[in-house]
Write a structure and sequence with these properties.
CATH class of the largest domain: Alpha Beta
Number of domains: 3
CATH architecture of the largest domain: 2-Layer Sandwich
CATH superfamily of the largest domain: ATP-grasp fold, B domain
Low-confidence stretches: none
Strand order of the largest sheet: 14-13-12-15-16
Order of helices and strands: EHEEEEEHEHHEHEEHEEEEHEEHH
Oligomer: single chain
């Protein structure tokens, strides 16, 4: 198979591992910088060009699109879909998962456990917004933030009011969530492929920090999931429409709570913590499922 990887950097760990795994299984692997791709959009023969040349047809494409280029990256992926290329994750599903508020609304509609979340736009609503999520301490998250950036723990009501007023003053979009104290600064990253959790790790925040992201100095260890946690992770990925996802779960006193569903989960942390060959499992999944024009949306949406 000819498989493309939409990635800005071929030297990134995840991109390198996917190349190695694909080539080891006899596939022709190509790294395509989405920002260097440009499109001929027409009704008869849609095309994608890069560096002055038309790209050949690909059997499958693996999107590794960073959050900062979601709009352009998903447009390129949508063009591949219109040309009949099989996407590991579809453009509509990626856009859905990148919109934090929309994704939580979709998950809540399916009855999936979530931290209580509030969203408002007027300063006059701040007192009720804080009460809605159970009061302080609470977590305030910028909707555009990634890797723990733009996430604030307000330990008192006054601090929460000040941060919310500041974000509103900057016209920033944010949400307010209950603080799950019993999670102890830890979360579970569940790596879902298809209808299975194929690997899972516990991410623990460093002392004095409540964000468990590995980019913020958190540590990762192998963890055993409960049946409820596995079922929640798979259901969350399916709700987003993702074939491959990193589902972040908090352990709470009232069961597993989904914090986020990541459409481009990194491979380094999960492979290191679990000693599993996740990259090969992704390639194997593509081998079993890839077919021309096999998308739910046909490039629409």
């Amino acid at each position: 198979m000819r498989i493309g990887i939409l990635s800005r950097n071929k030297n990134l760990y995840s991109t390198r591992r996917l190349i190695e795994a694909g080539e080891a299984r006899g596939h022709e692997m190509h790294v395509l910088d989405p920002l260097r791709c440009y499109m001929n959009i027409n009704a008869k023969e849609p095309e994608i060009h890069m560096r002055g040349k038309e790209l050949p047809l690909f059997d499958a494409v693996i999107p590794r699109i960073g959050a900062s280029i979601t709009f352009y990256g998903t447009a390129v992926l949508r063009q591949f879909e219109m040309m009949g290329t099989y996407p590991l994750n579809e453009s509509v599903a990626i856009s859905r998962s990148r919109d934090k508020l929309r994704s939580l609304q979709l998950l809540s509609r399916k009855g999936i456990g979530l931290p209580v979340t509030g969203f408002a736009s007027k300063p006059s609503d701040i007192p009720d917004l804080i009460d809605m999520v159970g009061g302080a301490p609470l977590v305030i998250k910028l909707l555009e933030g990634t890797q723990g950036i733009g996430v604030v723990l307000a330990e008192t009501r006054k601090a929460a009011e000040s941060v919310i007023e500041a974000f509103m003053g900057l016209n920033a979009h944010f949400m307010v969530q209950e603080y799950i104290k019993e999670a102890g600064g830890a979360d579970l990253r569940c790596f879902v492929i298809g209808d299975k959790v194929i690997a899972a790790m516990k991410r623990q925040a460093k002392p004095g920090e409540f964000r468990s992201n590995l980019h913020r100095g958190g540590s990762a260890t192998l963890v055993k999931l409960s049946p409820a946690e596995r079922a929640t992770a798979v259901k969350a990925a399916k709700t987003m429409g993702l074939n491959v996802a990193g589902v972040d779960i908090l352990r709470s006193n009232h069961g597993p709570l989904v914090m986020e569903v990541n459409s481009s989960p990194g491979l380094e942390g999960i492979e290191t913590a679990t000693d599993k060959d996740v990259a090969t499992q992704i390639i194997s999944f593509i081998e079993k499922t890839a077919k021309q024009h096999k998308t739910r949306t046909k490039g629409r949406g």
